[in-house]
Amino acid sequence: xxxxxxxxxxxxxxxxxxxxxxxxxxxxxxxxxxxxxxxxxxxxxxxxxxxxxxxxxxxxxxxxxxxxxxxxxxxxxxxxxxxxxxxxxxxxxxxxxxxxxxxxxxxxxxxxxxxxxxxxxxxxxxxxxxxxxxxxxxxxxxxxxxxxxxxxxxxxxxxxxxxxxxxxxxxxxxxxxxxxxxxxxxxxxxxxxxxxxxxxxxxxxxxxxxxxxxxxxxxxxxxxxxxxxxxxxxxxxxxxxxxxxxxxxxxxxxxxxxxxxxxxxxxxxxx
Length: 271
Ligand code: GLN
Known about the structure:
Layout (H helix, E strand, L loop, with lengths): L1 H22 L5 H8 L4 E6 L8 E2 L5 E2 L1 H13 L2 E6 L2 H9 L5 E2 L7 H4 L2 E3 L4 E3 L1 E6 L14 E5 L3 H13 L2 E5 L2 H7 L6 E5 H13 L8 E6 L8 E3 L2 E3 L4 H17 L1 H9 L2
């Protein structure tokens, strides 16, 4: 009798231990991580229109490669975050001002930016290009002579445009975001400058949806992958701060690459 009771006690104690272990296991990396860092929810800033990295949906939500990557990395590493899609330049200046913890926005890793920010391991290779209306007579950079082009504020493609504008004899008008810049082409600008994967995506979308989505442009010039304006995208934190978040991002990214989840995310948008 006594024996039985002890056995029963023992086994219910085991069950209790098992329950605690379960509760404290898989599902709890999140809350434990939060408890350790004082329940911190990281604030991440991003672009407001840079498909397929940031896709603005009609209902006000955002999807895209960067959004899915951040989500998968946060889940993998057990941290919580809040995403603010404020536009590229605003995202970068908010990070510079220490108002947000990180930026994921198809942001190119450059030596100049490394003076202000620490970058994660690179997660995507990119170049920059110039695009004109598909049915226009503008077919090369030489055709931009005496014309105006649209550029996006604070970007690599803007830097490329500014670096060659005297050589090709064009002027530039600056826009805050990619969608507004694309709209300008065919208006006061004959072409725009943009990251190639992003421009190529919108052009492909246009063809695939019979003009319902995307833009009716054609790429008329592009830098080579070894050019100084080619780049790799990275997640950024303010220099010397949030090393812990950067480590988590890198660890999560490595896990996603290993598990095939990274390829799954990229292929979902870029096939
Ligand atoms: N990759 C470019 C840069 O970092 C553009 C980024 C963007 O427009 N979101 O300058």
